[in-house]
Specification:
The chain is an all-alpha fold and about 575 residues long. Helices cover about 85% and strands about 0% of the residues.
Length: about 575
């Protein structure tokens, strides 16, 4: 029997802070993984890596089917009502569901990998596809506990498990990729072969070893998902969930197991469809981007090759792997793009139980405060980050990935996707709040419409030789702009609450304009006297300082937001002393 320790329920910002810190640590570890990995396996290996990841996404979404969010929401509702026996029953009901769906997802990926690689004309991604398959089962088992603890407003287990997962990915994945490249090239130098296959030159040998090096990197993901699950399982067995015997004694009679499973499924399916739609769109992106560029290379290659003269290695032209190379460039831009929504996803996870509780109790004033806090904090982070990414696309890409010939391709995509990151970041917590107020169907409908726009634009634009890979960035921007605007309007309509637009959007936007202007000016000035990377780092640091000053001058930070932070009362006293808080 797990030991029960009294739970400490966290406010939205306290929970968001825990998850944000963990996300920052995870992203730092991720950068220590992805950046050296790009140096080791190049754009080609990154193309194989992300091809496998984008096939994994829809199958994982199908396997989890929205259950983690459904568990979080139902646990939060039950906690608000004091129905602690229902909470325990929700957990017991979820375990067999995830074991079955996780195993099914694992088998689907194993059986479908070869067919998928043939369809997109990228059979070199097959080793990565096979090694990623077990991660579906482990990730499903991990999701049981993450959703459960998030519903109890305890974000620490999720945060720690994510850090463990990222560390394993770094240590195992990067080590395996380096080892495989080293062994493959040593074999070529000694015998002229790569893992038994003859190679005509060093460039061909390097190209031949990359599919296996990419698979080595993927192995880190699978091992990370296993150890993340192991940590959560052991933590639950040793420390329990914080529900005491007194809680259970005073709890009302629980729903039957049949009713619990039915409620879980009814809540989870619309959420799961939405999550699956996002991952299917990523899969379609992978497929269309590579197949449409292959079509351009067959029909009208001169326009594309003249745009990227000197940026695409000769070996890719000789081996007909330009589509995978350009997908690798897009993946590099996507890595930087995803940093921003990854942080705001933590706001959505933390917001869901708090907004659900306010909605369940009918506390309209508290609900309005919670909604404004979520959107304001998201805007304060995402608007300057996205605008900065767009303005400093080239310098940031060079700073992160090094001075590679392909950086101009990546930076052109990043200019568009930097703006798209703002709307992608806002859409996640807004959709989480729609789910919290009982409209789990609306995010699904909005996602379906937005992703239809994205897929259509990607198919059309990527097939135009002068636009090519840039079309994927434009489709992403249009998709998330549509979703964010409609989701925000729907949230206001459903709750009959209109948040303070000046506080949540206008003040962060004005401060972000100062921030972006500072970044552009500091980089322009610094690049005259400093090396490129030093100038970029100084520009980012200067922009952050200007942004902080602008926020304080505009009094864009609210008292209620700070109060929800750990030690918020002390912080407020300092800010009030200088008149820096709204």
């Amino acid at each position: 029997m797990a030991k029960a320790t009294r739970r400490n329920r966290q406010s939205f910002l306290h929970g968001a802070l825990i998850l944000t810190v963990s996300v920052l640590i995870v992203k730092l570890i991720g950068a220590l993984f992805k950046v050296p990995l790009t140096w080791v396996i190049t754009e080609d290996g990154l193309g194989y890596f992300n091809t496998a990841y984008n096939f994994y996404g829809p199958i994982y979404s199908l396997a989890t089917a929205g259950f983690p969010i459904a568990i979080s929401r139902l646990v939060s509702e039950s906690c608000t009502r004091g129905a602690y026996r229902d909470i325990r029953r929700i957990h017991r009901a979820s375990v067999p569901i995830f074991v079955v769906t996780g195993t099914t997802g694992f088998l689907l990926m194993i059986l479908g990998a070869r067919t998928y690689s043939i369809v997109i004309g990228n059979e070199n991604a097959l080793p990565s596809l096979y090694l990623l398959a077990p991660a579906i089962l482990f990730s499903c088992l991990t999701a049981i506990y993450r959703g459960y603890y998030e519903g109890l407003r305890n974000m620490y287990p999720t945060a720690v498990s994510e850090i463990i997962e990222a560390l394993c990915k770094l240590l195992v994945g990067l080590s395996a990729a380096c080892f495989i490249v080293s062994r493959g090239m040593q074999e070529y130098e000694a015998f002229g072969t790569v893992f038994g296959a003859p190679a005509a030159s060093r460039a061909y040998a390097r190209s031949a070893v990359l599919p296996y090096a990419s698979a080595g990197a993927v192995l880190g993901v699978t091992v990370g998902s296993f150890f993340s699950f192991l940590f959560l399982l052991l933590r639950h067995r040793i420390f329990g969930d914080g529900i005491t015997q007194a809680d259970l004694k005073h709890s009302p009679r629980p729903r039957s197991m049949h009713a619990t499973v039915r409620t879980l499924i009814r809540t989870a399916i619309p959420i799961g469809i939405g999550a699956m739609a996002v991952n299917i769109a990523a899969l379609v992106d992978t497929t269309f981007l590579q197949t449409r560029i292959r079509s351009v290379m067959e029909k009208n290659p001169n326009v594309l090759l003249s745009m990227y003269r000197g940026m695409i290695p000769q070996i890719n032209l000789e081996t007909d792997t330009v589509p995978n190379f350009l997908f690798g460039c897009f993946s590099m831009a996507l890595t930087l793009f995803m940093l921003i929504p990854a942080v705001t996803q933590a706001f959505g996870i933390s917001a869901l139980p708090n907004v659900t509780a306010a909605w369940t109790r009918g506390e309209k004033a508290h609900l309005k405060k919670s909604m404004e806090a979520v959107i304001r904090v998201t805007s304060l982070f995402s608007i300057p980050a996205g605008m900065g990414l767009a303005v400093l696309a080239g310098p940031i890409a060079r700073l992160v990935f090094g001075a590679r010939p392909s950086i101009p391709i990546t930076s052109r995509v990043l200019v568009i996707m930097g703006i798209g990151a703002i709307f992608a970041s806002l859409s996640t917590p807004i959709n989480s709040m729609l789910q919290a107020v009982g409209r789990v169907d609306l995010p699904v409908k909005l996602l379906a419409a937005g992703l239809t726009i994205k897929v259509t634009l990607n198919y059309v634009l990527v097939g135009i030789p002068r636009i090519n890979v840039l079309g994927a960035g434009a489709g992403t921007l249009a998709c998330y702009l549509f979703i964010t605007v409609l989701a925000f309007w729907s949230l206001c309509r459903e709750t009959k609450i209109v948040p303070d637009l000046v506080s949540i959007f206008l003040k962060p936007l004005i401060a972000s304009l100062f921030c972006t202007a500072a970044a552009w000016s500091f980089y322009g000035l610094g690049s005259r006297f400093l090396p490129g990377n030093a100038a970029a780092a100084c520009a980012v640091l200067g922009a952050v300082l200007i942004y902080a000053a602008a926020l304080f001058c505009l009094r864009a930070i609210c008292r209620d937001d700070v109060l929800m932070l750990p030690g918020g009362q002390k912080i407020i006293k300092i800010l009030e002393k200088y008149g820096w808080i709204g």
